[in-house]
C-alpha cells in the first residue's frame, strides 16, 4: 500500500483519491447529484463529467436553495507565493462556469498572509505575487459586476472580528489534530484557518440572512471547511458546501500536486509559447514505449501519460479526447504527436489568456474590495 | 511563603511585587532613572514618587531619545468587558501626564476582541463596553490632537499584517510557556498577543523610521511586551519600553487585582455619590482596630487599610497624605473619618469626571482612528 499524506500545505506520495474520501469524511459526487446540478446549468461542465471534481460536501443544500430561487454565493481563493500555473486555475474555471450558469456572486479571497506564515517567503513577496496573480484571475473572465476580490491584509478590518468568533470555538487541541500542528508551529498558522472560514460567513453577513456558499477548490482545502462547518451553525450561518477536485499533476508524473516553487514541474500562465513547448517536450512524463517500433506494436498508456492527463483538464471536446486516447493506446499516435496536441492546445489558450491578462491591468479596481 | 500567580487574565493570591521583578525579569524603577525622567517632566508624578509605578523595561531608551529631541510615542490600552473602575485609570492618569510633559502622541488601543476570546462575554457586549469606556478615556483629558483611539476589530485592516509578522516568530511552544496556554486554549487566544504587539510597532510604521514607544500599564501586561521585545528587532523596530504599576487593590483588601466583574470590589467612574459612599463604608477593608477605645490607644494600620491605600493613588498632596497616615497610625483619626476623606476625595473627582464624560459624547470622532 502506497503511503500518502495530504494537508493544505503539503502533499506527499501518490494520492489515492478514493481513500481520501474516507480519510476526509467527504462524499463522492454521484450521477444523481450531477443530474440535479445539470437541471440548473443546462449542460454539465467537462471537469465534472470527467470527475476532475469528484467529491463534495453539502452540494445538495446549495441545489435546494437554487431550486427555490434563493441567492447563493460562490467562494474560492488563491494564496499567492509565485506565478499562477495551470493547476491553480482548474477550480477557478469551474467557478467561472458556475457563476455564469447560476448567476451567483463570487467572493475571491487572496490570503496574502498564508504562505508568509507557512513557507519561507516574505510579506513583500506575497504582496507582489498577489498583485500579479489577480491579473490572471481577472483574465479568466469572471463577471466584474458579481465578483469581489480581496486581500486578507487589506480587508482584515471586515474579517478579523468574524475570524475571532470562529477562533473562540477552535481549541488548540482541535487545530493540532485536524491540521497536524505541533509545538514548533507558529501562532499565526494556528489562527489562519479562522481567516479562511470568514468568506464562508460573509454571504450571510452581506445578505443579512443565512445564505449558502459553494466553494470549488482542490480537495486538500476541505479540511479548513470541515472546521468551518463545525463552527458555522453556532454562529447562525449555514455549513459551507465544497466541490472538490483532484490535483492537476506535475509534469514529472501523475500522483502528486504541482508545486509553484519548482519551475520544471509546472506551466505558468505567463510562460511563452517556447517555454511551453520546451517544458512539455522535456519534462512531461510519457506513457509511451521506449522505441517507436515497440510503441507502434504495444501502444501507449494514456492513464499515466501527463500530456494526456493534462488534456483531460483542457480539451473540452469529449469525442476529440476519446479519439486521442484510442489512437495513443493503439500505438497509432506517438508520444511526440500527443505532446504536440497538448502544446498547441495550451498555446492557443495561453495566447488568448495573456491578451486578456494585459487588459486586466486596467480593470483591477473594478474587482477589488479594498476596505 | 504565600503563593501567587499573575497573568494578563488572572491574578491569584497576594502579589509580592518584589518577587514579580525577578519572576518577570523586569527592572526596579530607581532614583537615578526617576531623576533623569524628572529633568524632562520638571516634577515627578506622585504615582512615580510613591512607586505605584515601581518597575520598568528600557525606560532609559525612551529618555535617551527624549534627550536628543527624537519623537517618542505613548501607547496604552483597555480591553472592554464592563464599566471602567478606578483601578483602570491609574496607568491612564500617568499616560496623560506623560503626554502633557513630553508632548508625545498617544496610541490608545481598545482590544475589543480580547475579553471575548478569554472570558464568557459576547462580541456585542465587548462592543457596547468599548463605546462606553471610550467616554471615560476621553474624559480623562488626553490631547485630542495627539491621541488616537482605535478598536482592534475596526482597525484590523492596518494591524493584521503586522500581527502576522509577529506571529511568524512566536511558536506554540513559546506561547504555552509564556502565557500558560494548554490544549483547551482557543486559537484566538494564542494569536491575540500579536495584536497587542502591533501598536508598539505602529510608531515606527507611522514615522517611517524606528521610533521608540513607552507603554504605561499594570505590571501583569509586561508579559505581552516581553514577547514583543523579542520580536521587534527582527522586524526593524525598537524594543518597546514599559512603565509598570502595581494593582489598585479591591475594596476587600490589598494584594489582588480589582475585578470589573464583581461589583462590590470596585468603584466605577459612573457610580453615583451615594454608590461611592455606600461601597467605601460597607466594603473598604479597614486597618483600624475593633473598637474606638482600642483604636485610640493602639492606632490603625494604614498599610493594609484599603481607604488609605486608595488615597495614595488619588491624593496628590504628599503632606496631606502624610498627615492622614500619622493621625490614623496614632489613633487620632478613626476608620470612619479616614473613609470620609476618601469618599470626599473620590466624589469631587467623579463629579468632575462625569461632567467631562457627558461632554466626551460629542468628541468621540475627534479621537477615533476607524480605518
Layout: helices, strands, pairs:
The structure is a homodimer.
Chain A lengths: L3 E3 L4 E3 L3 H8 L2 E2 L2 H11 L4 H4 L3 E5 L1 H9 L5 E5 L11 H14 L3 E5 L3 H5 L4 H17 L7 E5 H16 L4 H8 L7 H21 L5 E6 L3 H14 L5 E5 L27 H11 L8 H7 L7 H9 L3 H13 L4 H26 L3 H4 L4
Parallel strand pairs in A: 5-6, 5-8, 6-7, 8-9
Antiparallel strand pairs in A: 1-2, 3-4, 4-9
Helix pairs in contact in A: 2-4, 7-16, 8-10, 10-11, 12-16, 14-16
Describe this protein's structure:
Two copies of one chain form a homodimer. Chain A is an alpha/beta fold and 371 residues long. The first copy, chain A, has two domains: 4-252, 3-Layer(aba) Sandwich (Rossmann fold), CATH 3.40.50.620; 263-358, Orthogonal Bundle (Tyrosyl-Transfer RNA Synthetase), CATH 1.10.240.10. Chain A is built from 17 helices and nine strands. Chain A has a seven-stranded mixed sheet with strand order 3-4-9-8-5-6-7, sandwiched between helices. In chain A, β5 (73-77), α5 and β6 form a beta-alpha-beta unit. In chain A, α2 (31-41) packs parallel to α4 (59-67), α8 (152-167) crosses α10 and α10 crosses α11. The longest helix of chain A has 26 residues, at 335-360. The model of chain A has no long low-confidence stretch (mean pLDDT 95). Chain A binds chain B through residues 113, 116-117, 123, 152-161, 163-165, 167-173, 175-176, 181-191, 193-194, 371, and chain B through 113, 116-117, 123, 152-161, 163-165, 167-173, 175-176, 181-191, 193-194, 371.
Amino acid at each position: 500500500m502506497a503511503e500518502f499524506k495530504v494537508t493544505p500545505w503539503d502533499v506527499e506520495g501518490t494520492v489515492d483519491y478514493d481513500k481520501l474520501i474516507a480519510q476526509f469524511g467527504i462524499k463522492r459526487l454521484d450521477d444523481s447529484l450531477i443530474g440535479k446540478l445539470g437541471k440548473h446549468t443546462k449542460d454539465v461542465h467537462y471537469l465534472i463529467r470527467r470527475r476532475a471534481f469528484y467529491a463534495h460536501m453539502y452540494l445538495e443544500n446549495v441545489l435546494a436553495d437554487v431550486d427555490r430561487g434563493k441567492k447563493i454565493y460562490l467562494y474560492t481563493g488563491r494564496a499567492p507565493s509565485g506565478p499562477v500555473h495551470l493547476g491553480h486555475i482548474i477550480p477557478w474555471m469551474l467557478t467561472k462556469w458556475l457563476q455564469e450558469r447560476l448567476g451567483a456572486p463570487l467572493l475571491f479571497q487572496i490570503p496574502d498572509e498564508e504562505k508568509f506564515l507557512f513557507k519561507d517567503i516574505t510579506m513583500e513577496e506575497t504582496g507582489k505575487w498577489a498583485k500579479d496573480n489577480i491579473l490572471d484571475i481577472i483574465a479568466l473572465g469572471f463577471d466584474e459586476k458579481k465578483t469581489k476580490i480581496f486581500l486578507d491584509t487589506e480587508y482584515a478590518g471586515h474579517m478579523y472580528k468574524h475570524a475571532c468568533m470562529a477562533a473562540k470555538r477552535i481549541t488548540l487541541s482541535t487545530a493540532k489534530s485536524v491540521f497536524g500542528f505541533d509545538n514548533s508551529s507558529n501562532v499565526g498558522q494556528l489562527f489562519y484557518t479562522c481567516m479562511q472560514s470568514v468568506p464562508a460567513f460573509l454571504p450571510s453577513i452581506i445578505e443579512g440572512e443565512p445564505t449558502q456558499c459553494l466553494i470549488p477548490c482542490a480537495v486538500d482545502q476541505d479540511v479548513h471547511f470541515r472546521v468551518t462547518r463545525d463552527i458555522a451553525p453556532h454562529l447562525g450561518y449555514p455549513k459551507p458546501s465544497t466541490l472538490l477536485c483532484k490535483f492537476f499533476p506535475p509534469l514529472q508524473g501523475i500522483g502528486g500536486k504541482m508545486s509553484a516553487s519548482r519551475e520544471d514541474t509546472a506551466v505558468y500562465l505567463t510562460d511563452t509559447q517556447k517555454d511551453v513547448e520546451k517544458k512539455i517536450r522535456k519534462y512531461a512524463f510519457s506513457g509511451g514505449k521506449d522505441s517507436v517500433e515497440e510503441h507502434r506494436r504495444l501502444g501507449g498508456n494514456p492513464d499515466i501519460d501527463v500530456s494526456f492527463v493534462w488534456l483531460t483538464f483542457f480539451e473540452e471536446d469529449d469525442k476529440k479526447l476519446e479519439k486521442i486516447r484510442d489512437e495513443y493506446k493503439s500505438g497509432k499516435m506517438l508520444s511526440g504527436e500527443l505532446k504536440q496536441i497538448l502544446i498547441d492546445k495550451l498555446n492557443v489558450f495561453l495566447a488568448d489568456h495573456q491578451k486578456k491578462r494585459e487588459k486586466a491591468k486596467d480593470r483591477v479596481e473594478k474587482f477589488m474590495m479594498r476596505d
